[in-house]
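Example complex used in Figure S2.
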Amino acid sequence: MKGQDILFFILLLITVGVHNRKLAVFLGLFFLALSIPLFSFWVFFTAERFVWYAVGFFCLGIILFFFERKK
Amino acid sequence: MKLVNLIVFSIFAVVFFSWVSPLPSVGQDWHYIFPETTREFSVVPSVYRSFVSLGQNTFGFAGVEAYYQFTGRIFGAILPWVLIEKLFWFLPLLGITIFSSYRLTKSLIGSLIYTTNTYVLMIIGGGQLGVALAYGIAPLVLQLFFDIFPYVTKRLSRKLFERAILAGMAFALQVLIDMRIAYLTAGIIVFWYLWELFHLGMQKQFPFRSISVVFLSVLLTTVVLNLFWILPLLQVGISGVAAVQHMYGSVVGAKFFSFADFSNTIAFLHPNWPENLFGKVYFMRSEFLLIPMLAFSSILFLGRNRVDVGGKDGAEGKMTNSTLVFFVLVGLIGAFLAKGFNPLFENVYQLFFTSVPGFSMFRDPTKFYLLIAISYSVLIPFVLKMLDKRITKIGHLHLVSLLFLMYWFTLLNPVWTGKVGGLFHPVPVPSEYIQLTSNLANQKTFFRTFWIPQRDVYGFFSNTHPAIDSASELRIGSPSGVLVWLENKKNQKTLERWGVKYIILPSDTQGTLFVEDRKYSQEQKDMTQKQLDSFPWLTKKQSFSGGKIIVYQTPKYNNRFWIEDLAGNTKESFISSKQETGSSFIVDVGELDSPALLIFSEKYDPSWEFQSGDKIVKSKKTHDNLNSFFLSSQSAIKGTVYYAPQNISIVGLSLTGIGLVGIGLLYYLMRRK
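Predicted assembly (744 residues):
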C-alpha cells in the first residue's frame, strides 16, 4: 500500500466520522483537481490513484446523503 | 439565455459543418457505395447478404441493414451516394440526437454535451452509424419511460396504457437499430423504476398490475416490430443464436478491447480521441477532468426538496433529490463499467461478462459511455444553472454557462482543426477506385475478388462480384500471413472453389491496411506486391492510377454453382443460375447422367435449401465448408436455392405490418376521450 492510499483511508475515515456529505464531495473535487497537474506532468500512477480516490469520495457523499435523509 | 442558445447552435454548426460538403464521407465502418452496388441491394428486408465475402446472415443487425439496403436501392437510382448518406443517415442522426437529448435534459447545453462528446464523435467519425442512431434515440426512450411513472399506481388508467404503448414503440425501434444500446437503455429504465419505487416507499405496495401492463406493452411492441428477424432466428434455433453470440464476444476479446482507464471514463474522454486509430490509446488529457468536477459537484446541491433545472411547465423539468442521485449513480456505474477489464476492481466486469445474461454483447466496454453521457448531460446543465443563479447577478448573463461553452468548444478543437478524420473529413472518391469499379462492374458474369489484406473503404462489391476481406476470412492478422496462405497450393484450389477471379492489392486510402507501428507503411505494401509478383500462378492483370491498385488474375475460378460427382470430381455440365434476391437463386442444372452434388460456393449454412418442384433438399457441408445439395434425379433439374429463414422473415414482416396497424389503432383509441 502506498503513502497516498493511507492518506486516502485516513481522510475517508475522518469524513465518515464527521458525517459530512459536503466534505466528502469537496475532497472528491480536490483529488480530481490535484490529478490534473499530475496527468499534465505524466505522473500517471499517482494521478490515476487520485481519480480513484475522487470516485470513492463521491460514492461516500451519496452514502452519507442517505444517512442524512434517514435522520 | 438567448446568447447561450446562439452559442450552442454555433458549436453544433462548427462541429458538423463538414457534413454540408458536396463530397462523400467514409470511415472504417462507413464505406463509399457505388451505384453498381446499390442497384443490387434488396428492397425487402433480408436476413442474408451475399455480397460480403462468402455470404453472411444479418440476424444481429437486420434492422439497420434493411434500412441501409432499402434507402440505397430506392434512392440509389436517382441520387448520388453523397446525398443518400447525408439525407438518410447524417441529418436524421443529428436531428434525432439533438431532439431526443433535449427531451430528456430539457437543456440545449445538455443536448450539446450529449451530441458532441468525444465518445459519440468517435462513434460517428468511425462510421458506426447504427450504434450512433441507437445512442441518439436513447434519451427519448428513457424520457418516454420516465413519463409513464406517474401513472404506475395500484389502479390502471388509460394514460398508463397510452404512454406504455408509446414508450414500447420507441424502445422497439431502438432494439431494431442496435440491441446492445437497447440493452443498456433497458438497464437504466429498470434501475429507474426500482429506484423510484423504493424512494416512494412503494416496495410494500408494489403496483404489480401497472408494472405488468408496462412490461407486457413493451414486450409486445418490441417483438411485433422485430418479428422479421426474430422469427427466422427462432427457426434457425441454437445455431443461429450462437452465430449472433459469436458476433459479440469472449473474455479474451473483451480484455483486448478494454482500452479506457478509469480516468478516461470518469473524464468522459474516449481513449482513442481524437485520431480514432484502432488500438491507439493516448495519454490522459487532464483538461477533461473539469467535466466530472462539474458533474459530481451536483451532489453539493442535494438537500433541497425540489430544484429547478429549466422547463416551463409546472412539475416538469424540476429535479428532485432522488432524480439527481439517480443520475449521479448512473454516471458512476457507467464510468466503472466502461473501463472494462482495467483497474479498479476489474474482476467485477469479468463476473458480469460471464454471468449476466446478455452482458457478453459488450466485448467493447466503451458502449457504457452511454450511461456517462446520459448522466453528465443531465447533471452538468443542472450545476451550471445553480451556479449561474448564485454567481451571476448581472442581468441574467449566465456567465458560468458561457464559460462552460467556451471550455467545451476548446475541448472539441480537434474537430474544428481537422484532426478528427473519418466522417468529419469528406474527400473526393479516389480515381483509381472509380476506374476499378467500372472495370469490375462491366463484367457481367459472377466472380469474387480477394483483397489483401482487406477491401478498402472505396472498394467495390456487389452480389455479382462479392468481395472477400482475406485477413478477416482467413483470420490472419497481416498481409504477410495472407501471402503465406497463398503460397500453399491447396489454397490456390480453395480460391478456385470460392470463385475468386481477381486478387486485389488495394490503395490504402485510410492508411490502415498496411501498417507498421500504427502508421501507414509503403514498404509493407511494396513487399506484398513484390511477393504477389513472384507467384507464377498469378497474372498481373492491371494497375490503376500508376500502380496504386494492382489486380492479379487467378488461372481458374468456379462459378457460384457447379456439379460434382459423388467422389468429389468436378463434372462438366451446363448450369445456368440467376440471382433473384439477396438470398435466393434460380438454378437450371440440366440433365444428369448419374446422381451428383450441386455445389454452392457460399459459406456453409444448414439453412440453405434447394427446391425443385415439391422436392426440397437441405444443404450438406462440403470438406471445405461450402454448401452441397444431393441431386438424385437424372432428368432436367431446375429449381431455386434459397435461404430458408428468409421465407419466415417475410411472414414476420407481414405480421409486423398487421401488428403496427393494431398497435396504432389501440394507441388512437386510448387517446380518444
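The interface with chain B takes residues 21-22, 25-26, 28-29, 32-33, 35-40, 42, 44, 47-48, 51-52, 54-55, 58-59, 61-62, 65, 68-69 of chain A (CB under 8 Å). DSSP finds three helices and no strands in chain A.
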